């Protein structure tokens, strides 16, 4: 390309009826370089926080398997990636000087010849999203751990997962995955993350609560060492400790490790065990059996079963049945479809535990209901039903 002179530039400005006084004195003359296809460039729009992470040398990872929508993860957050089209062509000009830079550098030559290295009509836009963690539990439940004597473990054909494996298949950041492993009480066995088989977990919990009972320890002060001593012959010591960590709060007193047992969690687990054996349970009978089944000194309350069981007040007598929030779909619309399939009209109190986890940052359950349900009054109580016909 021929290099323009200042005279040519001024002539062009005059033709365009532009007043040179109103413009910066420096002129960029652009020409397309030989590789200006731009096909190999992707633009990514980053919020300042993410930008700072990259500048600090941290990496961002794109995660997802072939059939999944890609997400981008930092160390502790997950973002949806969407392509945003622009009507303006975006040009990549290496060493391009901005007006601010030109102003601070008044001696710069009047004409800068720049080559365009590439261009793009779109860029990737990031939107903070909920980590997609449902799959984590699903993968670990393919092969739950049911104790050291299990023959099943020898013959199992299912994959086992290390932290690295999970990072490659779960669409969430490392911190979100590690936090979720804690939430679902996963434990590391021989380097692999496992979830305990529910019956095996209950067997372990039962050993611990019976020991507490026979030793008359206060529920707020269960000694780790004594538990390991007494129960170590029945089950692996690390399993005993795992149950104490799952169902208690660890603290140290005078150099010794104790656990304060978590009443709500223990009552919930025992409630689940009882409900698993029946399709529906007469509510008042269930409440009686449940209270008798929990350790001495613990009190059962229905709100301990939030997101685990649902009471049917419309049946006579009232019944209760198992409905676990973790078995429901992760997608908002599918979640509501499935809930309205189970029950046509919901009160806000009943539906909240089943949609609470769908709330994005600063979003309320009320906002979700407004979007996916319509409300009406039934006997003076506000209820919600589907916005679309339920198939």
Automatic annotation (TrEMBL):
Q: Which UniProt keywords apply?
A: DNA replication
Q: Which GO terms describe its biological process?
A: DNA replication; maintenance of mitotic sister chromatid cohesion
Q: Which InterPro entries match?
A: Dcc1
Q: Name one GO cellular component term.
A: chromosome, centromeric region
Span of the signal peptide: none
Q: What family is it from?
A: Belongs to the DCC1 family.
Q: Which PANTHER family match?
A: SISTER CHROMATID COHESION PROTEIN DCC1, SISTER CHROMATID COHESION PROTEIN DCC1-RELATED
Q: What is this protein called?
A: Sister chromatid cohesion protein DCC1
In which organism is this protein found? Eulacestoma nigropectus
Q: What is the lineage of its organism?
A: Eukaryota, Metazoa, Chordata, Craniata, Vertebrata
